[in-house]
Design a protein that fits this description.
Structural class: mainly alpha
Low-confidence stretches: none
Largest sheet: none
Strand content: under 5%
Shape: elongated
Order of helices and strands: HHH
Number of helices: 3
Distance between the termini: 29 Å
Length: 76
């Protein structure tokens, strides 16, 4: 198992690690957006609709920061 995680945790950024870290961060932003939607609008819209809307808008807000940050890390 550690042989699979070694390239991701070594700090070396290549095409594979950029794709994996982008997918991981997008999934985390999806979960965070859904949770924030439930907290902020769950009472008014219903929990399922608020979670669905938050899950859509969470990655939209986080994607530019994620991509710029990873590209800056790969460039520097």
């Amino acid at each position: 198992m550690s042989a699979l995680l070694q390239p991701l945790l070594s700090g070396e950024l290549n095409a594979l690690t950029l794709i994996v870290w982008t997918l991981i961060s997008m999934l985390l932003s999806l979960a965070a957006g859904a949770a924030a939607g439930v907290v902020l609008a769950g009472k008014d819209l219903g929990n399922s609709l608020a979670a669905m809307m938050g899950g859509m808008f969470g990655p939209v807000a986080a994607a530019p920061g994620i991509l710029v940050g990873l590209l800056l890390l790969a460039w520097l």
